[in-house]
């Protein structure tokens, strides 16, 4: 009985997915269809009461990995949204948000430093709770401390069997925490992924963010922003702040200088964002407070130090995930900027996300198929460079 119910739910999920893809004007590619079927198979169980789930042993989740722009998040989110329609209690987490929430929860639960393990368990229980299906977007590990927390999350979900876990990632399991000095710390987590989750490689050779006419939906959030030359501000209804608008933003006892605060709009320079001691936690708080950002004086990425490069990459990641409308203002064309993105960890994801921007005006590079073809070429080079530079892997731990 449980098996028949499961199959029926799987087909319902796939029907919902097909309807949504058609509504968005997207034609599923063979690799995406295969991924959807596996995702639906694993997610279907989360829509059934525990007592009615199939008795045969199933994988506790899916690790969906592949290069940037292959539709991993889109595919997983469609399945999760469909499962929610069928009654599953779902939750979506992004890498930076998860770590921020987890650290806060651990702090609340840890009355004694010696009770760290108990505090982590209590924090995970608080974050995951009674969730049936958890989607963890951008699952990546570059820090030894993160490896510990993410392995504990895997134990709390796929090992316990209490929550089905779907992760999206640019990395196969063995590519997590690539720094050879610390990779062994992630090996227990890698083993859990291989043993307890379906591992799918979603790569049809196409970055769908770089394709023209991929969707008929009007850009919103991050994609509604653009890459501008300073003289093109007026073209999109933006007015540069006056010297009198300069101010500060205070967060957690720290004060940060900005060019202007205009209700939900934040203006700041590249230096104020990437060269100040700004953490991802503070970026997340700013993203919640200010739903439109204008970042000016963006230089070629290879002209600033590695710490500033990595902080800017994190910022783009957070702004895109939080759907903050973002305008990047630079004398450097977007094409030249992307070409300057070296083999920093996750630089390839930044390149792909900047390709989402709907507007490229002024001195920025040409729009259209030619511009997107160059984006694809730059992305391929950055991805290749990032995997060929072992020195960067060793330097990541030092940067943090």
From TrEMBL:
Keyword NAD recorded: no
GO biological process per UniProt: cell division
Keyword set includes Transferase: no
Gene3D superfamilies, A to Z: P-loop containing nucleotide triphosphate hydrolases (3.40.50.300)
InterPro entries: ATPase_AFG1-like, P-loop_NTPase
Annotated stretches, region: Disordered: 48-69, 378-400
UniProt entry keywords in alphabetical sequence: ATP-binding, Cell cycle, Cell division, Nucleotide-binding
CDD domains membership: AAA (cd00009)
Bias kind Basic residues: ranges: 49-62
The protein, known as: Cell division protein ZapE
Organism, scientific name: Nesterenkonia halobia
């Amino acid at each position: 009985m449980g098996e028949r119910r499961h199959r029926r739910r799987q087909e319902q999920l796939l029907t919902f997915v097909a309807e949504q893809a058609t509504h968005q004007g997207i034609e599923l590619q063979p690799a995406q269809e295969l991924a959807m079927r596996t995702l639906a198979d694993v997610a279907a169980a989360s829509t059934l009461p525990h007592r009615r789930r199939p008795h045969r042993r199933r994988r506790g989740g899916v690790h969906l990995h592949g290069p940037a722009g292959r539709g991993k998040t889109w595919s997983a989110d469609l399945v999760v949204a469909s499962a929610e329609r069928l009654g599953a209690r779902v939750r979506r987490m992004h890498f930076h948000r998860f770590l921020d929430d987890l650290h806060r929860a651990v702090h609340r639960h840890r009355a004694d430093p010696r009770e760290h393990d108990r505090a982590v368990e209590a924090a995970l229980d608080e974050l995951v709770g009674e969730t049936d299906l958890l989607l963890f977007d951008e699952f990546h590990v570059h820090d030894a401390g993160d490896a510990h927390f993410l392995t504990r999350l895997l134990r709390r979900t796929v090992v316990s069997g209490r929550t089905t876990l779907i992760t999206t990632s640019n990395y196969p399991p063995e590519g997590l925490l690539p720094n050879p000095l610390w990779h062994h710390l992630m090996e227990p987590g890698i083993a859990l992924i291989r043993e307890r989750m379906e591992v799918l490689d979603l790569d049809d050779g196409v970055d769908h963010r770089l394709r023209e006419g991929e969707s008929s939906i009007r850009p919103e959030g991050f994609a509604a922003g653009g890459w501008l030359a300073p003289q093109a501000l007026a073209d999109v209804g933006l007015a540069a702040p006056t010297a009198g608008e300069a101010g500060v933003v205070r967060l957690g006892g720290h004060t940060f200088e900005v060019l202007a605060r205009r209700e939900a709009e934040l203006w700041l320079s590249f230096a104020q964002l990437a060269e100040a001691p700004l953490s991802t936690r503070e970026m997340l708080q700013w993203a919640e407070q200010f739903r439109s950002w204008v970042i000016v004086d963006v230089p070629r990425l290879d002209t600033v130090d590695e710490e500033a490069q990595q902080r800017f990459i994190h910022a783009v990641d957070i702004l895109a995930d939080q759907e903050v409308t973002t305008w990047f203002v630079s004398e450097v064309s977007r094409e030249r900027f992307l070409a300057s993105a070296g083999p920093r960890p996750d630089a390839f994801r930044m390149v792909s996300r900047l390709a989402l921007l709907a507007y490229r005006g002024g001195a920025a590079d040409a729009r259209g198929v030619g511009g997107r073809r160059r984006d694809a070429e730059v992305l391929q080079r950055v991805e290749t460079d990032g995997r060929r530079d072992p020195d960067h892997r060793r330097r990541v731990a030092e940067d943090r």
